[in-house]
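Researcher: Please generate the 3D structure of the following complex. Treat every line as part of one assembly.
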Amino acid sequence: MMLSALILIPLVGTVIVSLWPHHRPAKEVGQVALLVQVLSLVGAIVVATRFDIQQPDLQFVESLPWIDALGLTYQLGVDGLSMPLLVINSLLGAIAVYASAATIQRPRLYFSLMLLINMAVAGAFLAQNLILFFIFYELELIPLYLLIAIWGGARRGYAATKFLIYTATSGILILGGFLGFVWLGGTGSFNYDATLAQSMTLWQQGTILIAILIGFGIKIPLFPFHTWLPDAHVEASTPVSVLLAGVLLKLGTYGIVRFGLQMLPDAWAFFAPWLAVWAVVSVLYGSLAAIAQTDMKKMVAYSSIGHMGYILLAAAAATPLAILGTVLQMVSHGLISGLLFLLVGIVYKTTGTRDLTVLRGLLNPERGLPLVGSLMILGVMASAGIPGMVGFISEFIVFRGSFLTFPVPTLLCMVGAGLTAVYFLLLVNRVFFGRLAIALPSDKVEPDVMLPPVAWRDRLPAIALALLIVVLGLQPHWLSRWSEVTTLAWRSPSVAIAQPPSTTPPSMAGFAPLPFTPDVTDD
Amino acid sequence: MADFWMQSGWLIPAYGLVGAIATLPWSLGLVRRTGQRPAAYLNLVMTLLAFVHGVGAFRRVREYGSQELNWDWFQITDLTLHVSFELSRLSLGIVLLITGLSFLAQFFALGYLEKDWALGRFFGLMGFFEAAMSGVILSSSLFLSYSLLEMLTLSTYLLVGFWYAQPLVVTAARDAFLTKRIGDVLLLMGMIALSAFAGSLRFNDLYEWVKVADLAPLVATLLGVALIAGPTGKCAQFPLHLWLDEAMEGPNPASILRNSVVVTCGAYVLIRLQPIVVLSPIALDVLIGIGTITALGASLVALAQVDIKRTFSYSTSAYLGLVFIAVGTEWPGVALTILLTHAIAKALLFMSVGAIILTTNCQDLTELGGLSRKMPATTVAYITAGLGMVGIFPLGCFWGYTLGIDFFWQSQPALVAVFLLVNLLTALNLTRVFRLVFLGAAQPKSRRAPEVAWPMAVPMVTLVGVTLLVPLGMHQMDLLPPWRYINVTAFVLLIASGVAGVAIGAAMPLSQALARSTQKPLRILQDLLAYDFYTEKLYRLTVVGLVERLSLASSWFDRYIVDGVVNSIGLASLMGGESLKYSVSGRSQGYILTIVVGVGLLVLLTTWRMW
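Model: Done. Output below.
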């Protein structure tokens, strides 16, 4: 029942919040929602403490028959891949609720939608049945659509509809893939089974994989399916952006790793070189596009596209180390992008703009935002992969795990890591350095800007995330221990054939006979 | 107890870090009542502790030999990342130099930044800076060294950007970070490759691996060049040298460290990496090439600078170029001698420069003059530093030059010429600046120039003593070559090149009013050097331009092609729906006709075979 509790707590919370009496002060709604989120965070932590890290298989499995005729079972379980994501989901969920303005319009609807997202994402990470996963995956879409469409910015209608259409397409493709699993695999049950695809031919596996890749590629998002993300981020309010970047994108990478890498190993190995190329394109494209952005939120959104590409690269390489890298990178990207969106939100709230060409010198100690600026520098450095923060170690593991399998794509992705420094440095330099000024488009520079002080309440979530980023950066073992055994046990069976001549230059042939080379191909 | 100093050697970098964290209440503005000074004192004490600890450990090492401290920081599958420190005579000696200079520079900063409102933040950054530096030196694992080099990049960025409200500072900080970052990313690539090939990243394991390594020549070369790139950025070598001269926009006490010990850290990592770079002879040649180009180029560029800090920052690049040559020719001893002697002399030189800047509020050479009578201590410091920098027997840098020239005498006479030329040009430049600043008539900005106050004078005079005592210290530690090995011809040539430099510098016409020459060929040359061979422009046109174009192109592609396709699909479906709307006429005859035709076609289709 432990895992069901993680779904039930937010679900019950949703009901309570939406039915909260109207004569009570509106402020209470947010407090109740926060309480529910904290409870679910505690629940996730309890699960984590009981979680046996030596055990590679699913744990706390719960199974209830639901609709037998469809092969739908209410089956939950958690393993090293989903455990950290579950905690991050609850954590960022709590932060998003905490960071929501107390004076928000229609608080009952707003907070119940927030809790609903939390519940759906937790369900998707926990589900051990394809249809059940799909239900939760689709369920998360509706509240997010409403959150953007109701509480969003000026072009919220466009952004929300775009998001909806993209994600619905993604859902259709994924559903098609799942049906293919069962029909071609020849079983009547939709329960997760790593051996499901064994009886399929490579063609069949490949077809399913393409559907799944495109489906989750939209969600991650990968080039060229990404254009919904910048729009959605720009129009979404700060807490929604935190959830979107920190948690919802992870559903896509989780899906790719779980259903692609784990359940379609042969096709995956066949496609792996192309996936690595796709990752490179996504990384470089996202990073380059980020440089040219003038909206802070758009810049962070494009950086997400770049950083999620690393996960695809690591998944394509599929060495045990690289798979661990995918988990670390998911968590670290969740924390870092959450922090960046929170800070951009504060800047937007105090200055009324996010435009890089307008803002100047916000680091000013008396009249500016010195603490927010300092945290921004920290977040930006973490994203650029400066050691001592969690971004570095996860990128290091991704690159280190992928290097022997795909040397050239890995090096190209590292160029993307260099570009991250370029665009985020531009952001910090333009917005936080220099003389404090807000240069309006009409060439009229407001002379003596006096920004209102930021309340500690607003700073607190950002400080908490920053601390977490530094602590996990100094002690990455606290993060990796959850996934270590699971990812080790996966041992992708057929990496050996995944070395086409196209991505491996001839000179690299000299690697194999090295006595000290950890030999990946023998796994 | 004997082992205490050694076992806790990891504390030496930690002191600086603790000091840095302890300043947070002041720099965040949580403590206002006391003013910013306590933060500064805290850091001074911490640095002193690090120094004392270093001295203790140094003595133990002399008695018991070197020791390694090792922790498995992160262990997963086949990957182990170590945090390990090596306490040896060499590493502890350099750490003493770093902490000692850091202490003096911070003391100096008490005076230099007396009126600055952000003293706490400055000292916090200095503590962080110092911690990273001593960590880099003590580290015996490439992983740790890399991480700390990145910390250095970060703290350089923050220190250069200390006065972030000034536009020049903003670009300087950005360029410092990005140029170093290019080197760092390349180094990271090399490190990832090494880690994948060799398994471990501890230097000792890597040295063992090199003996059995069997890499294809191309791979070895790429690896070697990638490993070189990191130190190239840190030591401000061509083509990643731009940042150092811009970084001179930062506060002077940080410049003292940057020009002396920070570059030393980069070079020290290079020396540690050299046994791995050896795998590729081409990479070694690249090293020599980089060193030669930078040594000569930067020495020439320094001659044409009018900014007192920038001209000496180029000379730093030049000396580090000599170090690169020494490492490339596999003479690490020469490299270390140059590094250590240069660090002390350069630190002193920058202290005297700092004194001048603070007193006159000016760092433009053309606006200074006649300071020798007004600022005696500063003048003495400058002269001592100058003597320490050039090859004057028996002061510091002489020994590095002699050793280098001796070793290259037979095999590579061209490099001997490089060394002599750098010595000549450095002497020339020092004389030129001396004449401009200290001699001649006083100008408006240097007319009322009192000597600096004691917080700046004390460290300066102390360092004068240290500079003069360097040969004695080297003798004590048996670092000087025995007399009978001294090559007399080389000795004479070296002295002669220095004297020639001074003579040219003293004799050449200097006009303070006209910084640019009136003769066209000379002016073109002057401009070429003054603008650093137009490297910045070149970069703007090539690398920066390329990235900018690409980013604009991908952003355009994103908006108009990718999003355009998506939007046009949306538009097409909307249009489709709109146009279908008109088929709904509301007349039942039309509907019936449609149904009949439709059903008819269906029947036709299903019964086709029967016909």
